[in-house]
Amino acid sequence: MKSFVSTVKTSGISAVRLAFGAVLLAGMTLSPLTMARADQLCPDCALPIVKNIEGTDYEAVLTAAGKNVSYRCAQCAIADSGKYRGDLTLLAPSEKAGNPVQLRRLGGVWSGEPGALYMSVPVSHRKCQVANRAFHTKAGFDAYAAKNRDVVGDAKPMTLAQFVQSAE
After folding, report:
1. 1 and 74 share one domain
2. Which helix (H) or strand (E) element contains residue 48?
3. Mean pLDDT, residues 2-31
4. Strand partners, 132
5. What is the value of pTM for the model shown?
6. Structural domain tally of the chain?
7. Which helix (H) or strand (E) holds 4?
8. CATH number, domain at 85?
9. Residues 6+ positions from 65 with CB-CB distance below 8 Å
C-alpha cells in the first residue's frame, strides 16, 4: 500500500482525487433514468442527455443543414426545431434499439413513417426520455407502455400531428 500511495503522490494525483474518481466510476451502474451523458446537455431543457443503454434508446437526434444535434427526448427536439430554417430530419427513439422512427419536416410540414405511433405523457423533464417516444407498431407501443407504466401510466397512442402539437 505504501508504494501505491507514493506512486500516486509522485504522479501528482492526490488520494482524495483518486477516491473521488472511484466514486464516480461506481455511479456508472445507475438506472436508465439517472444515466446521462455528462459531456452533453439538451439544447432545449438543459438536462443531461440520457445514454442509450440496456437495449433501449433514449437520445433523439435532429439533423438540420447537415449538422446533427442530440436531445434528451423527441419532444425537446421538436420544441427546439423552430430555430432551424429549412428541412430537417428527426430520429426519434423507438421500441426497437438501434432502429429509430424517422420524422421529417419538409417545407414546414412534419411527416413520419407510415403506421408509426407516438407517445407524449406530461411528466417531469427528468423522465421525458421515457415518456416521449415514437413506435413502429401498436404492439411495440403496448409492450413499452406496460413495461414503463410507473412513468407513463395509462398512456394512449397519438398521431404525429398530436405529438408535434404537444411539443410546441
Report:
1. no
2. strand 48-49
3. 38
4. 120
5. 0.74
6. 2
7. helix 2-10
8. 3.30.450.410
9. 84, 85, 86
CA neighbor of 42 nearest in space, from 5, 65, 8, 74? 74
Amino acid in the structure at residue 138: K
The verdict on 135 and 110 lying in the same domain is yes
Q: For the chain, give the secondary structure using H, E and C.
A: CHHHHHHHHHCCCCHHHHHHHHHHHHHHHCCCCCCCEEEEECCCCCCEECCCECCECCCEEEEECCEEEEECCHHHHHHHHHHCCCCEEEEECCCCCCCCEEEEEECCEEEECCCCEEEECCCCHHHHHHHEEEECCHHHHHHHHHHCHHHHCCCCCECHHHHHHHHC
Residue-range definition of the domain harbouring residue 103: 31-167
pLDDT tens for 102-147 read 999 999 999 999 999 999 998 887 888 888 999 999 999 999 999 9
Per-residue pLDDT for 45 more than 70?
yes
Do 64 and 20 share a structural domain? no
